[in-house]
Amino acid sequence: MEPASLQAVADQLPASAVSVGTAAVARVPVVGIVGGVGSGKSAVVRALTQAVSHSGAGCRLFVIDADQIGHQQLGKAEIVAALVQQFGRDILEDGVISRARLGSLVFQDSPSGQQGLQWLNQIVRPGIRSQILLQLQAIPQDVDAVILDAALLLEAGWADHCDALIWIEAPLQQRQQRVMATRGWTVQQHRLREASQWDLARKRAACDFVVENSGSLETAAAELQKHLQQICRGGFVRVPTDSN
């Protein structure tokens, strides 16, 4: 399938009904969480939400998990059909999209891998963005901040919907060890996935705050809470940067 026809497929998939900025849809600050592959973004967010839930203190959070939305997209019949048409039935395992098999095709040092990743994004990203916007329009009244946890937040342009960006910092060796333990990846698989994203220095420079996550999750969660409290108090105004 050629890119033009892929775009036609993407146009038929769920997409946002409106194109709006954060100010139009959010009643509270929207904070994007950014980091390298294996930095522990989601783990830090979970640790903080659990701590707030148990103690009743701190910013009350509404979390939008783009990775979870992506999982849901891969289960939709129209997405499965479009991916099978492009990549073949070998990406299926018991009739379900195998993320490992699909990943092996698009995360590789080759022009075909780069083209495959581009096609994958054309098929899947419109539906993810649509769901993010829908959730932004349905923020509960009793929360202080929205967390947008998205691995490709900057690459996909979703930072446009954020009032602040927080970088989760962790050294390379630790990030590699994490994905080897939690996802069964090799060092090479980690390298290929990270190479498919923006350069780490560029991503870090685009963020407004930094949370160190090389120690305990409790310490990282407390640091994240500190930054969120500043944002929630209105003590920070983000100056948008060029995302191109």
Plain-language structure description:
51% of the residues lie in helices and 12% in strands. β3 (92-93) and β4 (96-97) form a beta hairpin. By secondary structure, it is α/β, with parallel strands linked by helices. It has a single domain (26-232), classed as P-loop containing nucleotide triphosphate hydrolases (Rossmann fold). The longest helix is centred in the middle third of the chain and has 26 residues, at 111-136. It contains eleven helices and seven strands. 34% of the residues are buried. It has helices spanning 3-12, 22-25, 41-55, 66-73, 77-87, 99-106, 111-136, 172-182, 187-195, 200-205, 217-232, and strands at residues 30-35, 61-65, 92-93, 96-97, 145-149, 164-169, 209-212. α3 (41-55) crosses α11. The chain is globular and about 50 Å long.
Secondary-structure topology with pairs:
Layout: H1 3-12, H2 22-25, E1 30-35, H3 41-55, E2 61-65, H4 66-73, H5 77-87, E3 92-93, E4 96-97, H6 99-106, H7 111-136, E5 145-149, E6 164-169, H8 172-182, H9 187-195, H10 200-205, E7 209-212, H11 217-232
Parallel strand pairs: 1-5, 1-6, 2-5, 6-7
Antiparallel strand pairs: 3-4
Helix pairs in contact: 1-7, 3-11, 4-7, 5-7
Question: Count the helices. How many?
Answer: 11
User: Mind describing the biggest β-sheet?
Assistant: 5 strands, parallel
How helix-rich are the residues, as a percent range?
40-55%
The low-pLDDT segments are 1-26
Overall shape: it is globular
Q: Termini distance?
A: 27 Å
CATH class: Alpha Beta
Overall number of structural domains: 1
